[in-house]
Specification:
The complex is a heterotrimer.
Chain A (H helix, E strand, L loop, with lengths): L1 H30 L7 H19 L2 H25 L4 H20 L17 H4 L3 H5 L4 H19 L1 H11 L1 H7 L3 H27 L11 H11 L4 H23 L6 H21 L1 H7 L13
Chain B lengths: L2 E5 L5 H25 L4 H10 L5 H26 L7 H18 L8 H27 L3 H21 L34 H17 L2 H11 L1 H6 L3 H29 L10 H11 L4 H24 L6 H21 E5 L5
Antiparallel strand pairs in B: 1-2
Chain C lengths: L1 H8 L6 H23 L12 E6 L9 H16 L3 E6 L8 H10 L4 E4 L5 H10 L4 E5 L8 E6 L1 H15 L4 E6 L4 H17 L4 E6 L6 H13 L4 E4 L6 H9 L2 E6 L10 E7 L2 H12 L7 E4 L6 E4 L7 H15 L10 E2 L5 E3 L7 H5 L15
Parallel strand pairs in C: 1-2, 1-3, 3-4, 4-5, 5-11, 6-7, 6-8, 8-9, 9-10
Antiparallel strand pairs in C: 10-12, 13-14
The chains are: A mainly alpha, B mainly alpha, C alpha/beta.
């Protein structure tokens, strides 16, 4: 029994990591008032690029780096559309998402169905040997910890630094922020590119550590779960992290319960994150104070500097 | 910078017509680059993609078959989009419509009543509208963002479909495969052209286009919706204009998508199964934008998107293009369109430098 | 190294012009191989007497898995008939309304025969076959027939039984975990046969199953395998998962694994207990010959070990010579028809006797099997 609990907790950390990267990145983007719905496509690009580069070069570092760069490039195209060409954010996000999915298939085609040795777990010495805590917390690959660190850094930057203040101001009212003299477009551009890079890392984690193989359709809707997670976590990195871990735990628990011999409708479990998120969204949106504190007021609106 | 961007006081009609053409041209250019890189003759590929489907009766039938749901959904969505109500969950509304109609067809499996199909159309339309109505209700009563809610309702609808076809609606004689029994003949749309799969559900889409055109161009509610959406500050004082815009926008979009779902299951499919729509709900968003959110523009856009779908499948067989080229084409088309669209509402003005 | 990646995509030569030329050339070569890898390109129409065959696969042919085995069947046809046949292959075609269009397009291209590689193509295949009575169709794992539409399946349960016997030998926890796609008769039959085989060599076997409700979900398959391992399973049976994800997890975790369709030794050189290899070569060649001779009649083919359609590939070296002898003799007895895996008495989960002492399960009942044998702990999803 204890083995099973350890397994569930330990696997949850790994299962949540791809979501964690992408969701924290998207939270920063949304905090500046930009809704980027192309996460699914950007994760796919990251997954394919990371896998191809790591396979060819034999280096995980390069795999992850190139994945981040490739997805950041794609998100820069998105940034160009919504910032320079004043395109509708919803439409631009869908367009880039579709493009990303299509391109990922081309990038990874020669490697379809091939495997790679997964990123190895770190050896943390005595820490990894501690009973219970060791296998749960201290026997993971490095990216699990990088993911956690990213969450903490993003949380700290958003809530405790001047940069965070500027980001929130831009998301609240870009025209007011511009009046004060903040570089609205630059801030948004940087946030979008950062969000893209994070989605790329999340995708690459799937192919280099988690599954570890490349196959078309591997991202399997995670990009959309990320969009839901950001709302579920009310745009706050720490809560998003909790949401990601909860989601990971629930999806693993479903498989685990099945193995124990209980029949549960798996479709209900799959729909659960969305049902919960809608409920959370309805509750927080109802409360003007909560929404003012968390929801970026200009989310999804085109900002036109000259207007 | 010697030029700057200036908003046009009135969107230029000429520019609005040129934008989609420019987007198509740019897509073709980028596409030819891609095909050349793939080692294919770009002209052969374009022929297979855009001409070949239109050279046979069957091909035209297939394009029209694809066009039906895209057109119907896009017309519905565009009405909401004009009012800045962002329903991105048409895929789910389509599925719910298909489920409602399918359940009816399966329940009256042996019926040969002429009223079965109309009843299915009503059930599907209402179900789609109701599914979108959840988002409208959450938006108007709780202020919940409809982009996020409609999208998440889509994912829930998909799981609902999976549950139903592997449980309650599964064909008892179907070897436990996750799909329903075949519908009876009375539950199917009649063929429209011989030797093709295009059926009378296309007429629904064309009628919907006409209604949308009248609605948007001629009638007061259409005008008010426009006002309510495009100038929320002004309209807010005029009462509940914004709330009404949300309700109307979402309900119409949902109803159209639900109806399109009926067209799919009672048309080419003839049963409920796990894969009902190849992403029509999302593709229709592209169609709505590509058509400039204008009822007539959308008809052309729907035709062109349908052509890309069918051409993609055909070139798969005849030229050996990769399966993903359809997706890439669609993505590029919308990217270029969105980029070009800037110039429908803005123009470049030379800045005179005074010395 | 970044350099090797760069040189893969951007080979560096002396002059700039040279660089550009080689770059374009290599990019083309790569792209060409990419393109041919995913849709084996079609040559322009040739002479009239070439027998043209269209193949539709539900997933990319890849290196292993269901579509890969179908594609090996195609290669066997090409090897046998050489220039006399021409192939049109499309892969990764979803089982939706669009499959019909691909079939019609192939018919328009003048194919003489069509191979439909997935159950979900059945209704569209039926319609197309009715429309084009001069084209012969063979369809994977369906159950409807026409004069010009036959279907084919393998008796994988034969191999599953033998693999189960092997699992009974090597398990120490007496717990077997299975990662299964859908609860269709084909899969239920495999679970039962494997369990019965394991119980034949080890009386205390219990079996846990995770239903994925998907033919393709590598991440979830991998998670399922891990959760089964955490629940003491030390042999994992991966049923109809097209990717090697379960197999490579088993290798990583040091747990024995059995898989279907293809030999996956390359992904688990230490931990692969055995693969249930399927082969369509003989059947495909026979059907193509019949179609060429105009003697084709749509029939249901259910090939087993006796037809060379199912075999055991890459047994683990960890089995003793004695154990191997037992397994090999079971294979021989199944091939000769002397032994049937579903031989009574067989008791189901509820304790009811499903097959009486001395009886064997009839083909018709096996094709529609919807109960699990005693020893399987998981229930069928409702």
């Amino acid at each position: 029994m204890l083995d099973s609990v350890i397994f569930l907790l330990a696997s949850t950390l790994a299962a949540a990591t791809p979501l964690l990267f992408a969701a924290v990145g998207e939270a920063v983007v949304e905090k500046t008032g930009v809704l980027n719905l192309s996460i699914e496509g950007m994760m796919a690009i990251g997954a394919a690029t990371g896998f191809v580069v790591a396979t060819l070069s034999g280096s995980y570092v390069q795999g992850f780096a190139m994945a981040a760069i490739a997805s950041a490039l794609l998100s820069a195209v998105f940034a160009g559309l919504v910032l320079t060409f004043l395109a509708n954010q919803v439409a631009a996000g869908l367009a880039i998402g579709i493009l990303g999915l299509g391109l990922s298939v081309l990038i990874g085609k020669e490697f379809e169905g091939t495997t790679i040795i997964p990123l190895q777990d770190l050896d943390l010495g005595t820490l990894s040997e501690l009973p219970f805590i060791g296998p749960v917390l201290f026997s993971h690959d490095v990216m699990v910890y990088v993911g956690m660190a990213t969450v903490i850094v993003c949380w700290w930057v958003l809530s405790h630094t001047r940069l965070g203040l500027i980001i929130r101001a831009v998301g609240e009212s870009p025209s007011a922020a511009a009046t004060i003299g903040y570089p609205v477009l630059l801030i948004r551009l940087l946030a979008i590119v950062f969000g893209g890079a994070m989605a790329g890392l999340g995708g690459a984690y799937l192919t280099l550590a988690y599954t570890p193989l490349w196959a078309e359709g591997l991202v399997a809707g995670r990009g959309w779960i990320v969009v839901a997670l950001v709302v579920f976590g009310m745009w706050r990195p720490l809560r998003i992290a909790i949401g990601a871990y909860l989601f990971g735990a629930v999806s693993l628990l479903e498989l685990f319960i099945q193995g124990q011999g209980y029949a549960i409708p798996s479709q209900l479990m799959s729909a659960m994150p969305y049902i919960i998120t809608i409920t959370v969204l309805a509750v927080i949106s109802r409360n003007p104070r909560l929404i003012r504190l968390n929801h970026p007021a200009s989310l999804g609106q085109t900002y036109n500097k000259s207007a | 910078m010697p030029y700057r961007l200036v908003a046009r006081t009135e969107p230029s009609l000429r520019a609005q017509l040129l934008v989609p053409l420019a987007a198509i041209l740019l897509t073709l250019l980028a596409g030819s680059l891609l095909f050349t890189l793939l080692g294919k003759n770009a002209l052969d590929a374009f022929y297979a993609f855009f001409i070949e489907p239109l050279t046979t009766r069957y091909g035209i039938g297939e394009v029209l078959l694809k066009m039906g749901p895209l057109l119907l959904i896009a017309q519905g969505l565009a009405i909401g989009f004009r009012a800045r109500v962002w329903n991105i969950g048409a895929e789910g509304q389509l599925l719910v419509g298909a489920i409602a109609a399918g359940a009816l067809a399966l329940h009256f499996e042996s019926s040969d009543s002429v009223w079965l199909l109309p009843a299915m159309i009503c059930a599907g339309t209402l179900a789609g509208a109701a599914w979108a109505g959840i988002a409208a209700w959450l938006r108007t009563s709780c202020n919940a963002n409809e982009i996020l809610v409609t999208f998440m309702l889509s994912s829930i609808a998909l799981q609902l479909l999976y549950y139903l076809v592997s449980g309650p609606l599964r064909d008892p004689m179907g070897m436990s495969f996750p799909q329903s029994a075949l519908f009876g003949d009375a539950a199917m749309f009649a063929p429209l052209m011989d030797n093709t799969r295009v059926n009378t559900s296309l007429l629904l889409a064309l009628i919907a286009s006409l209604v949308a055109w009248i609605f948007v161009q001629r009638s007061m509610p259409g005008f008010k919706l426009l006002v309510g959406g495009q100038a929320p500050e002004a309209a807010r004082y005029a009462g509940f204009a914004q709330k009404r815009a949300v309700w109307i926008g979402l309900l119409i979009g949902g109803a159209a998508a639900g109806m399109a779902g009926v067209g799919e299951v009672a048309g080419p499919l003839g049963l409920l199964q796990r894969s009902i729509s190849p992403g029509y709900g999302f593709a229709a968003i592209i169609v709505a934008f590509l058509g400039g959110l204008h009822p007539i523009g959308i008809v052309f856009a729907a035709f062109f998107m349908a052509l890309i779908y069918v051409g993609g499948d055909m070139s798969l067989v005849s030229v050996g293009l990769p399966n993903s080229s359809t997706t890439i084409f669609q993505g590029m088309l919308l990217v270029f369109y969105l980029a070009c669209f800037l110039f429908a509402h803005h123009r470049l003005q030379r800045i005179e430098i005074k010395r | 190294m970044l350099l090797s990646f760069l040189t893969f995509y951007f080979p560096i030569q002396q002059s700039l012009e040279e660089v550009m030329k080689t770059w374009i050339k290599s990019a083309r070569t790569i792209a060409w191989s990419l393109a041919t890898a995913l849709t084996i390109g079609t040559a322009p129409a040739q002479a009239q007497d070439v027998f043209k065959i269209g193949y539709i696969y539900p997933s990319p042919a890849g290196d292993v898995g269901w579509a890969h085995e179908l594609d090996r069947g195609r290669l066997a046809i090409e090897e046998k008939f050489g220039d006399k046949v021409e192939s049109v292959v499309v892969e990764n075609i979803p089982e939706g309304p669009d499959a019909a269009r691909i079939m019609n397009q192939m018919a328009a291209q003048g194919v003489d025969m069509m191979m439909l590689g997935s159950f979900g193509y059945m209704n569209d295949g039926l319609k197309t076959a009715k429309r084009y009575s001069d084209i012969d169709f063979i369809h994977a794992s369906g159950y409807k027939l026409l004069d010009n539409l036959g279907n084919f399946q393998t008796r994988n349960y034969e191999a599953a039984y033998v693999a189960g016997m092997g699992a009974g030998f090597v398990t120490e926890t007496n717990t077997i975990g299975m990662v299964a796609a859908y609860a269709i008769p084909e899969v239920v039959g495999l679970i039962n046969a494997f369990t019965l085989g394991a119980q034949a060599t080890n009386a205390d076997i219990s079996v846990k199953v995770v239903w994925l409700n998907s033919w393709f979900d590598p991440s979830k398959a991998q998670e399922s395998a891990r959760s089964l391992m955490a629940q003491q399973s030390d042999v994992i049976f991966s049923i109809y998962q097209d990717t090697p994800s379960v197999v490579s997890v088993a290798e990583e975790e040091g747990v024995y694994v059995v898989n279907t369709s293809s030999d996956m030794k390359q992904y688990a050189s230490n931990q692969l207990l055995v693969s249930l290899q399927i082969s369509w070569a003989d059947y495909f060649i026979e059907q193509v010959q019949a179609s060429m001779d105009d003697t084709f009649v749509g029939s249901a083919f259910w090939g087993g070990m006796a037809d060379n359609a199912v075999s055991m590939a890459s047994w683990s070296d960890d089995l003793s010579a004695e154990q191997r002898a037992t397994l090999d003799s079971t294979v021989a007895r199944i091939s000769s028809g002397e032994f049937h895996p579903f031989q009574g008495p067989v008791i189901d989960q509820a304790g009811d006797e499903k097959i009486a002492e001395g009886d064997t399960l009839a083909d018709g009942d096996l094709l529609a099997i919807s109960w699990l044998v005693k020893g399987v702990e998981t229930q069928l999803p409702k």
